[in-house]
Amino acid sequence: MKFKERYLAGEIPFEEIDRYIEDWGNSDEPCTLREYLGLNAEEEDVWISDSDEALMELLDAQKKKAGIKGTQAES
Length: 75
Description:
The protein is mainly α. Helix content is 59%, strand content 0%.
């Protein structure tokens, strides 16, 4: 499962993105980091142009729309 899917499902905290980035960097995956994380182009643009926090806010808005709470550890 990609980072975005797991984050939106409330399975992992946002900070896990760092582990996914490291795993991608150490892998032979032919995909881009965006694809590896499961982000769309708009999400990637916000992340690159603004910050991690801006991406987290964008994903949190998607969670809220879907009615998903934080990670199980936060519940």
